[in-house]
C-alpha cells in the first residue's frame, strides 16, 4: 500500500520495492496493464505459495532428522493453506487486519475472467 510510512527502498527497472517486515504482502501497479498482465501479476503470489509448499513437502520427505522434518513439513502445510486462502474468491473481512475490505487474488482473477468473457 502506498502511504507516507511505506517509502520506496529501491527500483529494478519498472519494479518499485517498498519493503517492510510483516506477514502479508500487496502488489500494486499504476494504470497501463492489460487483462493478461493483471492476471499474471495476481496469480504470481498464489502460484509461488503453491510452489514453495510443493518444494518443502518433497524436501520434508527427504530429510532424516525428525525435528527439521517436522518444521519443513509444517512450513509446507502453512504455505499450502496460504495458497488456498488467497485463491478463495472473497472480500477479506475486518478481522484480517491489513487485508480488510480488499478482494482476494482469486476474486480478482474471477473478475478479470468475466471482463475477458464480456470483451469476447
Provide an overview of this structure.
With 120 residues, this protein is mainly alpha-helical. The chain contains three helices and two strands; from the N terminus they run ββααα. The protein has helices spanning 35-62, 66-87, 105-119, and strands at residues 10-12, 15-17. Helix 1 (35-62) packs antiparallel against helix 2 (66-87) and helix 1 crosses helix 3. The longest helix has 28 residues, at 35-62. The radius of gyration is 17 Å and the shape is globular. The model has no long low-confidence stretch (mean pLDDT 84).
Structure at a glance:
The protein has helices at 35-62, 66-87, 105-119, and strands at residues 10-12, 15-17. By secondary structure, the chain is mostly helical.
Total helices: the number is 3
Strand proportion: 5-15%
* Span of the ends, CA to CA: 33 Å
What characterizes the major β-sheet? 2 strands, antiparallel
Q: Work out the helicity level.
A: 40-55%
Mean pLDDT value = 84
By DSSP, the count of extended strands is 2
**Cα shape:** globular
- Broad structural category: mainly alpha
List the secondary-structure elements in sequence, H or E: EEHHH
Q: Tell me the strand order in the biggest sheet.
A: 1-2
